[in-house]
Amino acid sequence: MDEDKKCWVLVSSLKEDSSIDDLERLTPLVKNLIDQWQSSGKIMWSGSFEDNNTGMAVFEATKEEAEKFYENYRTACSDLLEYRLHQWNAMPILSVLSR
């Protein structure tokens, strides 16, 4: 893995006052963010948990790239989701897969 790149995890869940209709409105925005990320040749694994309320995205990025993605995510989702970005000290599997 590039020394500057690290694994990141973004965990999000619907706010209590959000509805399934809100989630359906939000889904294309999040999909667009992920598509933009992946179209630049970067890998991101994402999906929802069985509660249909919580989702997670795992990706490899520099701190600056991760912060920019987080800011774009915040802009799209802040009124409907609670979310947190964490650096994840995981095995560099995404680097291996991208080769």
What does this structure look like?
The protein contains 3 helices and 4 strands, in the order βαββαβα. The mean pLDDT is 86. With 99 residues, it is α+β, with helices and mostly antiparallel strands. α1 (20-39) packs antiparallel against α2 (63-77). A hairpin with a 5-residue loop joins β2 (44-48) and β3. It is globular, with a radius of gyration of 14 Å. Strands 2-3-1-4 form a 4-stranded antiparallel β-sheet, with helices on one face. It has a single domain (6-97), classed as Dimeric alpha+beta barrel (Alpha-Beta Plaits, 2-Layer Sandwich).
What attributes does this structure have?
99 residues, alpha+beta, four-stranded antiparallel sheet, Alpha-Beta Plaits, globular, 3 helices
